[in-house]
Amino acid sequence: WGSRKAQHLVKLLALDPQLRLTTEQFLDALWPDQDPDGLAPAFRQACYLARRALGHPDLLVVRGGVVALAPIEAAAIDVRDFEGAAATALRRRTADEYAAALARYGGALLPDDRYADWVILPAERLRALATRLRAELAGLHEQAGADDEAEALWRQIVADDPADEAANVGLMRLYARQGQRQRAVQQYHQLHGRLRDDLAVAPDPATRQLYAAILGGQYPPP
User: Fold this and answer.
1) Edge-to-edge strands of the sheet including 60-63?
2) Global pTM?
3) I need a surface site. Which of 30, 77, 174, 199 has the fewest CB within 10 A?
4) In terms of C-beta density within 10 A (0-12 exposed, 13-18 middle, 19 or more buried), how is residue 18 classed?
5) Exposed e or buried b for every residue in 181-219, given b needs 16+ CB within 10 A?
6) Neighbours of 32 (CB within 10 A)
7) Consecutive 10-residue runs of the chain (222 residues): their mean pLDDT?
8) Phi, psi for 70 (deg, rounded to 5)
């Protein structure tokens, strides 16, 4: 790449739905603490190095204060592929579509740049989307009686966010139905501690009611 700024320039473009941003947006993202009036040479150098790295001068266009990846049809971007598959899954709501979308999820967005301001929001949006897909697919598996598949998905969510209440409740239900009451109770205590320590909140009333039912042998119903 020649420079991290050139690399970041292409990453910023790839994250934009239209694959284009204004020069001002780039300067704000890449040099947030510097006077934009003196950044023209550095910006031109980043564009030059990005074109060279892409291997074709026409793939990066700078015109009229706008920078774009072009032509759009030639750009294959994993984030866009995942979001497209996720939209299809959420519309059709079948196990196969959910699984196909999750197969396109590559994990944390741009881990080398995870603390950059311009990465944090899209990274959280994609993580939340993957969590939603996993939760809805786990629900379908539960309805179908496929407990092993549901457990694997709930566990993936909890590994990513130990304070995710829905996933912890999903595991509590599964363990209780399998006759593992102690394990279900332990899952509740782990959730309770995480919510208390991280967010200073208690589990929802419905979660506490489920816990009480499991503890009293009332869930699952006889």
Assistant:
1) 20-22, 66-69, 60-63
2) 0.89
3) 199
4) exposed
5) beebbebbeebbebbeeeeeeebeeebeebbeebeeeeb
6) 10
7) 92 92 92 88 92 87 90 78 97 97 95 93 96 98 95 96 97 96 97 96 97 94 82
8) -145, 150
